[in-house]
C-alpha cells in the first residue's frame, strides 16, 4: 500500500505534480509512504551545559530525532534529554514549556542564576529563539540547541566545541557495563 507521495509544504498534494504551481520558498517532498501517512521531520538537538569552572561544555552532542510533522521543540527536547540520560526538571504551564534545571555530573543544579543571568537558553537554527520551545514548530533540518548562557550571548561566542569530555566504560566482574572513569 505504499507509493511515492508528493507533499508541498508538509501537506499531501491533491493533484498530480504537473498540475501544481509552486511559489518561491515552497518545500516539495516525495515520500514513500501509505495513503494518509503524515511525513516525519528530522531535527537535531544539542545540549551545552557548563563545567565546574563555568565554561561551556557539551553535555549531549548533536543528535538527530525523527518526529511527526507539527511536533514542537519542547517534545524533541524532552526526547533528547531522556536519550542523553540528563535528569531534569521541566513543566508545561499556561505560558508553555519551562525547563527549570538540569543537574551537572558533579551535583550542581543549573537553572536560572540571578547573579550571572544564566539560564537554559533556546537556540533555533543558530539564533536565540524569541518564543518558547512549545511555540517552535519543527521542520525538516531544524537544529535545536539548549545552552546554559546569559541573555544576549550567542553560540558564536561560546567555545563549547573546544571542551572535550571522556567517560570510560568497561566490563564488570559479571560481564555487565561498568563506569571505570566518570565524565
Protein topology:
Layout: E1 2-8, E2 11-12, E3 28-34, E4 40-50, E5 56-68, H1 73-83, E6 89-93, E7 96-103, E8 109-111, E9 118-124, E10 127-128, E11 143-150, E12 168-171, E13 177-181
Parallel strand pairs: 4-11
Antiparallel strand pairs: 1-2, 1-3, 4-5, 6-7, 7-8, 9-10, 9-11, 12-13
Largest sheet: 5 strands, mixed
Continuous helix count: 1
How much is the radius of gyration in Å? 20 Å
Low-confidence stretches: none
The secondary-structure element order is: EEEEEHEEEEEEEE
Mean pLDDT: 86
Helix content: under 10%
Strand pairing plus helix content: what structural class? mainly beta
Query: In one word, what is the shape?
Result: globular
Description:
The protein is mostly beta strands and 183 residues long. 6% of the residues lie in helices and 45% in strands. The protein has 1 helix and 13 strands. The chain has a 5-stranded mixed sheet with strand order 5-4-11-9-10, with helices on one face. Strand 7 and strand 8 form a beta hairpin. It starts with a strand and ends with a strand. The mean pLDDT is 86.
